[in-house]
Specification:
The chain is α/β, with parallel strands linked by helices. It contains 8 helices and 7 strands.
Length: about 250
């Protein structure tokens, strides 16, 4: 028996990177998957690829910063699959601006995507999970929600907020058999990271620095982080409540 047989899972930011790798793994483990993303073209291409793994794939173009869009994502999953067992609030963006150059628009964009986007999805999913008698919610934290790095106040704040948000709602929701935990990756090879590299002043130097970031001396593959999401989504993590699963190659151990 596969670990997610018959489960209905929603993954935001599911069209690329960690979200797409997780969708693939969840499908391989028997889940029916709804992927949501703000990029419609990327969503179409990724869904076509994922349907080669498993036909049970639903797609929703949506912006998690919107309460209405989050509700649409949840409604689409329920309409297609009849229930909602797992929500992985994966959608997020990065920011590398020191406080002097960090403007209000960027601050709002990062906080609204990375932190508010968790709130909107959880708020939309909880009523259905309560009515079913339980479920699993995975929030997307970061190693940078545990330790700060220079010149990233918006990102550090957003991810630190996610970890405390996770702890808070985990305490409330476990009484309804809804387990909530945070997944906290380190530097991972995603399209978002690649864009950061290519737009940096010296891309090759940036690549070398990233490879030396953690004691493991390499960056993560999205599939490695996806396996952490699978653990949190499955019954294997049945005693994990309000925890942060850190997959950072040893960075926060320093």
């Amino acid at each position: 028996m596969k670990r997610l047989d018959g489960k209905s899972a929603v993954i935001t930011g599911g069209a690329s990177g960690i979200g797409k790798a997780t969708a693939r793994l969840f499908l391989e483990e028997g889940a029916r998957v709804t992927i949501a993303d703000i990029d419609e073209k990327l969503l179409a291409n990724s869904s076509a690829e994922l349907r080669k793994v498993g036909q049970e794939v639903e797609t929703v173009k949506a912006d998690v910063r919107s309460v209405a869009d989050a509700a649409r994502i949840v409604s689409a999953a329920i309409a297609r699959f009849g229930r909602l067992d797992i929500v992985f609030c994966n959608a997020g963006i990065t920011s590398m601006s020191p406080i002097e150059s960090l403007d209000e628009a960027e601050w709002d964009r990062v906080i609204d995507t990375n932190l508010k986007g968790q709130f909107t999805m959880v708020k939309a999913a909880v009523p259905q999970m309560k009515s079913q008698g339980g479920g699993v919610i995975i929030t997307m934290g970061s190693e940078m929600g545990i330790v700060a790095v220079p010149e990233s106040p918006a990102y550090n704040a957003s991810k630190g907020g996610v970890i405390m948000f996770t702890k808070s709602i985990a305490l409330d929701l476990i009484t309804h058999n809804i387990r909530v935990n945070a997944l906290c990756p380190g530097v991972t090879q995603t399209p978002l990271l690649e864009r950061e590299v290519l737009t940096s002043p010296d891309p090759e130097r940036t690549r070398r620095e990233q490879a030396q970031w953690a004691p493991i001396k390499r960056i993560a593959d999205p599939a490695e982080i996806a396996r952490g999401a699978l653990f949190l989504a499955s019954d294997e993590s049945s005693f994990a409540v309000g925890s942060s699963l850190v997959l950072d190659g040893g960075y926060t151990a320093k």
